[in-house]
Every structure is written in structure tokens, then in C-alpha cells.
């Protein structure tokens, strides 16, 4: 199987549950051309080098089309673009704009200026996780939908609290974000009738979500309030305040991340432990292993599988391949995280794994800003679940039972 075929197969919806055999094929050529002016990077060493290479641009306006597509964009003349502009968020911008915007966000989000914000969320997360489990128990059900009843409400409540987004609006923006994500993740199916319908819904919902956030940001610009968005707009630090359009773009980024990647990380942790009952019991008996377990799940089941919108600003030779200037460069985190040149027995889940510098939180200047927060949001629920649930594994049955 050549690289082009392996990449096309990995992107098909039917293969999304298990793309790893195709990533194995791609890693035979760690940097491979898979379409005209489109290259995928699957080797650990090669991806690490390119993630830190200033010749790799994250500016979305420079990214040529290729497999993976781009986020659904509203029509250029639409009302919300006229109102709020088309400023890029941190994740799709380059230095110096990226560095300045990241400093502004981190000033109100993490040490050294805001060392208490993330730790202060832990009691809120623990209380919410307990409440959700109590609600499930009060319903008299013996079943729990891990996503809808547990994994989803926690990070959404946290990100709304941090940003200053009204949680009562969640049903509305949840639907928009769902359509936004569905309209982004099309792959080869993007040219089909179904794909075009999804893309159009994504464009409409992107406009609605941006309108909503833009209105919220403008209200904070006029009247300061609680949360990160207001702090960005009224920042008196060395970089000054962030503009309304740029704050709106970054609000969209952070709200979507709170709906998607962190939810998936919690779910992936539960799923992986359920598939490995021996590890579940180990973590239950040794809760100090939960942080290491989270990192291993992120390596094995990366919540963000790859980053599609980067491009080469100059010719780059790496891994025996020459990437021409102007080419799209897709960094396949999920493939590099299973590179046998870097990880011993890479397809095995090992909560005791020590040398585990994976790409689950990204790498380089675009390393996930919310990584420490996401770890907290996953750690507390995982600890509660591990205490409440145990494996029944005897001669007659093998199942999940109530813990003590």
C-alpha cells in the first residue's frame, strides 16, 4: 500500500475508529507526499523537528487545500464578518501575532500572573463530578452514559466559568459547535452530497456561533464583567488590551476546545480502562497512577489526532523527503505517538510507562494552553469513577460492579 492510498483510507469515515494500521503504513515513509502539494508527517523525530521549525506556518491563510479540509468559513460578505472582522485565533496564527496573543491569554490563565486560576477550579470540578454521579444514582438507573451524563457537562461548565460565557446558553451553542465540528471533519467525503450538506450546516452554525460570541464580547467591551474575555478586553499589561474581533476569534477557539478535546479525553480514559480491566484495578488500588494514566491515554488515543492547517514557507528537507515551499503539511500526532522508534511496544496501553513525551497536547509554540486545566478536569472525574467502579471477574461472570 502506497502512502497516498494509506492516507485516503485513514481519512475515510468507516476507518476512523481504527486508523492505526494505515498510520503504520504511512510511518514506513515518515514524511510522505499523499497528494499534490500535500505532505503528512507520521514519524516521531520528524514531527518533533517540524513542530519547532519556524519554516512551518500555522497561518490558515497560507494553507493550501488538501485532505483534511479547513474549518467551515462563512461567506465573505456575511453580516457577522462585517461586524467582527476575520481576525485569526492563536492556533492559526504565526509570530509575532501569535506570541503577543498567547501572552495576553496566558496572563489571565496561568502562572506567573494567574497562578491560582487553574488550581481554584479543582473544588468546582470535584463537586460537579460528584453531583453528576449523584444525579445518575437518583434516577435509579444502573447505567451511565459516560459522554452525555458525565464527560460532557464537566469541561463545558468549567470553560464557561473561566471565559464568562453564560452556562444557560449551552443548549444553543452546543448545537452550533456540533455542526461546526461535523462540517470540519469531512476528509475525502467532502465532495459527496452528504459532505456538502454538512459543510453548509457548518458554515451557517459558524456564523451563528461567531455572532453570539461577538455580541457577548462587545457587551464586555462596553461593561466589564467576570471571566477571561472581559479581562482580555480591558488588559492593562505590556501588550495592552485585545481587540473585539481577536477576542471573539479566541473565544470561539477556547469554547470549542472545551466542548471537544477535553470531553474526548475524559471519555477516552474511561473507555481505555474498561478495555483493560487489569489496568482499571491497578489504578483503583493505586490512584497516584492516575496522572500517568492520563498521559498514556493521550499518547495511545490522542484526543487531537492531527493538525491539518500548517504549511511550509520555504523548502524543507527532512526524513529523506523534500517538502516544497507552499505545501500543506499535516502533523499526524496520533501516528507519531505510536512510533516504535520512540516508544517500546507502542500499541500497548501501559499506565506504568515512564518515558512518555507524547504529542497528545501538541508541541512547539502551539502546545495546548489548556493542558494543565484539561489534566485537572480529567484527573478528578477519573479518580471518582475508579473509586466507585470495580471489575467482577470470576469463574461465572466478567463485568463491572459497584465499588466500595
From TrEMBL:
Q: Which cofactors are required for activity?
A: heme
Mind listing the UniProt keywords for this protein, alphabetically?
Heme, Iron, Metal-binding, Monooxygenase, Oxidoreductase
- EC code: 1.14.-.-
User: Pfam families in the record, alphabetically?
Assistant: p450
Q: Which GO terms describe its molecular function?
A: heme binding; iron ion binding; monooxygenase activity; oxidoreductase activity, acting on paired donors, with incorporation or reduction of molecular oxygen
Q: InterPro entries, alphabetically?
A: Cyt_P450, Cyt_P450_B, Cyt_P450_CS, Cyt_P450_sf
Top-level lineage group: Bacteria
Positions of region (Disordered): 59-81
Protein family per UniProt:
Belongs to the cytochrome P450 family.
The molecule here is called Cytochrome P450 147G1 Cyp147G1
Q: What organism, scientifically named, is this protein from?
A: Mycobacterium liflandii (strain 128FXT)
Q: What taxonomic lineage is listed for the species of origin?
A: Bacteria, Bacillati, Actinomycetota, Actinomycetes, Mycobacteriales
Amino acid at each position: 500500500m502506497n502512502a497516498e492510498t494509506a492516507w485516503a483510507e485513514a481519512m475515510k469515515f468507516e476507518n476512523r475508529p481504527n486508523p492505526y494500521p494505515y498510520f503504520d503504513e504511512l510511518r514506513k515513509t515518515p514524511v510522505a507526499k499523499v497528494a499534490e502539494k500535500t505532505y503528512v508527517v507520521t514519524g516521531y523525530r520528524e514531527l518533533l523537528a517540524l513542530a519547532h521549525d519556524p519554516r512551518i506556518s500555522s497561518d490558515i491563510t497560507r494553507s493550501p487545500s488538501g485532505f483534511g479540509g479547513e474549518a467551515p468559513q462563512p461567506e465573505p460578505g456575511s453580516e457577522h464578518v462585517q461586524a467582527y472582522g476575520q481576525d485569526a485565533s492563536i492556533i492559526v496564527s504565526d509570530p509575532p501575532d501569535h506570541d503577543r496573543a498567547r501572552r495576553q491569554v496566558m496572563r489571565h490563565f496561568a502562572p506567573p500572573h494567574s497562578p491560582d486560576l487553574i488550581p481554584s477550579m479543582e473544588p468546582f470540578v470535584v463537586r460537579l463530578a460528584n453531583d453528576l454521579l449523584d444525579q445518575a444514582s437518583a434516577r435509579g438507573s444502573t447505567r451511565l452514559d459516560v459522554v452525555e451524563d458525565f464527560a460532557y457537562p464537566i469541561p463545558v461548565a468549567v470553560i464557561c466559568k473561566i471565559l464568562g460565557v453564560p452556562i444557560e446558553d449551552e443548549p444553543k451553542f452546543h448545537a452550533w459547535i456540533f455542526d461546526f465540528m461535523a462540517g470540519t471533519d469531512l476528509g475525502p467525503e467532502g465532495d459527496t452530497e452528504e459532505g456538502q450538506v454538512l459543510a453548509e450546516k457548518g458554515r451557517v452554525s459558524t456564523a451563528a456561533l461567531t455572532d453570539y460570541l461577538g455580541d457577548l464580547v462587545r457587551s464586555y467591551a462596553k461593561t466589564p464583567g467576570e471571566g477571561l474575555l472581559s479581562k482580555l478586553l480591558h488588559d492593562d499589561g505590556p501588550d495592552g488590551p485585545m481587540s473585539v474581533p481577536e477576542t471573539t476569534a479566541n473565544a470561539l477557539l477556547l469554547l470549542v476546545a472545551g466542548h471537544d478535546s477535553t470531553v474526548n479525553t475524559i471519555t477516552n480514559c474511561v473507555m481505555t480502562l474498561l478495555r483493560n480491566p487489569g489496568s482499571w484495578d491497578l489504578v483503583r488500588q493505586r490512584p497516584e497512577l492516575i496522572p500517568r494514566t492520563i498521559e498514556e491515554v493521550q499518547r495511545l488515543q490522542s484526543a487531537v489526532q492531527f493538525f491539518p492547517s500548517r504549511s511550509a514557507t520555504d523548502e524543507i528537507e527532512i526524513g529523506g523527503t523534500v517538502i516544497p515551499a507552499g505545501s500543506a503539511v499535516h502533523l499526524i500526532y496520533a501516528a507519531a505517538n505510536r512510533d516504535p522508534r520512540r516508544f517500546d511496544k507502542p500499541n500497548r496501553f501501559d499506565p506504568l510507562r515512564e518515558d512518555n513525551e507524547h504529542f497528545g497536547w501538541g508541541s512547539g509554540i502551539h502546545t495546548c494552553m489548556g493542558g494543565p486545566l484539561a489534566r485537572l478536569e480529567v484527573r478528578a472525574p477519573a479518580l471518582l469513577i475508579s473509586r466507585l467502579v470495580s471489575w467482577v471477574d470470576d469463574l461465572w461472570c466478567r463485568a463491572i460492579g459497584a465499588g466500595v
